[in-house]
Each structure stands twice: as structure tokens, then as C-alpha cells.
Design a protein that fits this description.
116 residues; seven-stranded mixed β-sheet
């Protein structure tokens, strides 16, 4: 049974940090590129960060470059998103997507709220 589960969201003050985790099971995790997306109320879902399956190359949205870091631990079937210097505009539901060829799996999302 395929599962993709995000965790680590919550309420944080501006300037604070959170680390999200995306834990997967039921498929060969190491073959899959993993992407974090986010969706704020009334806005379209947008790509935040991607990490490839083989080389572990990363790519970030301009809005998070220098603040967010994506990493993966294939032994634990988990991808992390370290988020520093958080801003109110980072408030959104964060989703994890695993993709390999024509296969794509989504998690249910985790809420991140940045507010004082």
C-alpha cells in the first residue's frame, strides 16, 4: 500500500524555523524525485523545492532560495524541508509529491502558519 505522509507543520513566528518531513512507503523510494509544493488560501499550488532521485540535485522557487533546504535520506524513505527565516507569506498547506516516470503519489499535506 502506497503512503506518503507529511509532518512537522505548525504555527511559528516570523523569522522562525520549521522542519517538514515527507515519509513514504509502499514503493521504491530511491527511484523517485520528490517535490514539495504549497498552496495558500485562494492561490494556486506552487512548487517550492525538488530533489532528484539519483544525484540528489536540488531546485528551489526564487521565493525560498537561501531560506529553505531540501534533503533526502533514502535509508529512511524520508525527505526533509528545512525552512528558516519564515515569513507570513510562507503560510500555506505544504504537500509532498513523489514522481517516477508516469507514477505520481501525493500526501495529504501539512499546515504551516507564520504569524505573530
Amino acid at each position: 500500500q502506497v503512503q506518503v505522509v507529511e509532518s512537522g507543520g505548525g504555527l511559528v513566528q516570523p523569522g522562525g524555523s520549521l522542519r517538514l518531513a515527507c515519509a513514504a512507503s509502499g514503493f521504491t523510494f530511491s527511484r523517485y524525485a520528490i517535490t514539495w509544493y504549497r498552496q495558500a488560501p485562494g492561490k494556486e499550488r506552487e512548487l517550492v523545492a525538488t530533489i532528484t532521485s539519483t544525484s540528489g540535485s536540488t531546485n528551489y522557487a526564487d521565493s525560498v532560495k537561501g531560506r529553505f533546504t531540501i534533503s533526502r535520506d533514502n535509508a529512511k524513505n524520508t525527505v526533509y524541508l528545512q525552512m528558516n527565516s519564515l515569513k507570513p507569506e510562507d503560510t500555506a498547506v505544504y504537500y509532498c509529491n513523489a514522481k517516477y516516470l508516469s507514477r505520481s503519489f501525493w500526501g495529504q499535506g501539512t499546515q504551516v502558519t507564520v504569524s505573530s
